[in-house]
Amino acid sequence: MPVRYTVAEGILDRSVADELLVHLFETDDVFVLNGDAKIVFEALKQSRSIEEVRDLVASRVFCDAVELGAAVDRAVGQMVAAGMIVRVEEPEA
Q1: From CA 86, how far away is CA 6, in angstroms rounded?
Q2: DSSP letter at 1?
Q3: Which tens digit of pLDDT belongs to each residue from 67-83?
Q4: Of 33, 20, 24, the residue nearest 75 (C-alpha)
Q5: Which one of 32, 43, 59, 80 is most buried, by most CB atoms within 10 A?
Q6: Closest CA to 61 of 44, 83, 43, 49
Q7: Which of 48, 50, 55, 58 is nearest to 77 (CA)?
Q8: Average pLDDT score, the chain
Q9: What is the pLDDT of residue 64?
């Protein structure tokens, strides 16, 4: 099954300078994302595969492709663990 990621329900986000404040209403947790994590989070406001997120971030950030892929994977994993992002398995067509 293809796996996609998207922002969880019950989230409010607000840009403040180069950072993004993310509030999870369910737990009342608040996170402050730096500029790079902000790009990943904003990419996931639409349901995307990890490959699509990597490509989108690569179009906005200049760095080694391997390092970038690892950083995106790490950021998505941390956001899933924190409850900001949900993993959705879609049925194959």
Answers
A1: 6
A2: -
A3: 888 999 999 999 999 99
A4: 33
A5: 43
A6: 43
A7: 50
A8: 91
A9: 83
